[in-house]
Amino acid sequence: MAKLQPLIGLRRARQQGAIVLVSVVLMLVMVTLITLYTGRIQSFEHKIMLNGQNQRFAFAAANAGLSQGFAELQHNKSWPQATVTGLLPNQQSFSVTASQQQIRRHTRQFLLFELIASGSSLDGLSTVSVSEHAIVYPLLASIPIAPLMIDGDIDRRATFELIANPNGAGQGIALSVWSNGSVDMAQINGLTCGKFEYVNSQCRNRAYSQQGQSGADILANDGNFPVDLIAHLFNFSLLDYAALRDHADIQLTDCNALSAQTSGFIWVTGDCDIAVNIQLGGFTTPVILVVAEGSLSLNHGASIFGLVVLLKDPASVGTHDVLMSTTSLLTGALVANQSLGKTAGVFRVVYEHAVLHLLSTEPRFLRVAKVPGSWKDL
Length: 378
Fold this sequence. Notes:
The chain crosses the membrane at residues 20-39. The chain is α/β, with parallel strands linked by helices.
């Protein structure tokens, strides 16, 4: 027995060593498996993070494409035939297409665009498409139907010469003055006639109306006159005229800087004095001139082609007027949301539908707005 003891101890030692070895191997296998599993999980997490990042980049690129599409409409008021593409500083890309249709609201037609933008991440593995609608509308929602439209009275001290709209009150029915106030032709030194008579210097001999004679072309105290004249013209309430002012191409406090090169929608806050021989606008390049809280004066030889609006704040108590020399002329229409003539105002207006029509169709007088609630992720 004494001789067997060392052999038994050696055998036990070998068995314990084998067990330890197996345990170590098992632990190494487990550590390896855990390491591989952890690496695989981290790889998945990295891919998920990368995919999420690519998705965000593609989403940002798609929205940048929509912004580019709206900028294209703002600039041209129409959509080019080709797809608009772009590359962002971080190399993300986008493409924008558009479809359009005409819609009608009341008697006006508008263009409705659906912009569809697709954005891609830098590696091209993620693509997002979004869409939004935009409407292109004219600033001048309604063309004036008479050379003089006035929300108030024409004072007896006024002097005017108006060349009528031949179809202002209906087909073949001339209209020179449309007002919701009084126009007393028994006292006012006024003269109205047709375009043919004016061109051939027969206006006084063949007048529609003149002092002491009021014709059917003077439509005064009319119950159908617009309640809000500014809203009738521009679809902006008089109480919200500041929003209309923000659409102006030029905002001034006087008219000293106006010249033959001035164009577009001009807003003047204060008195506007058009200098001698200055022509503002043209037959094919008319202007919209709003004179807010001020009077308008046209000096010798001065002329305006387009629409002139004399705008008075409802809270104002000031008196404003229009004074034109015998050699100055407005071709288009004059509109005022206040009484005129209290300071012996003088108006000389030739109604010209072609000029006014351009104000509602020319791209310069069109504006673009997003349709609220139309954005969607495709």
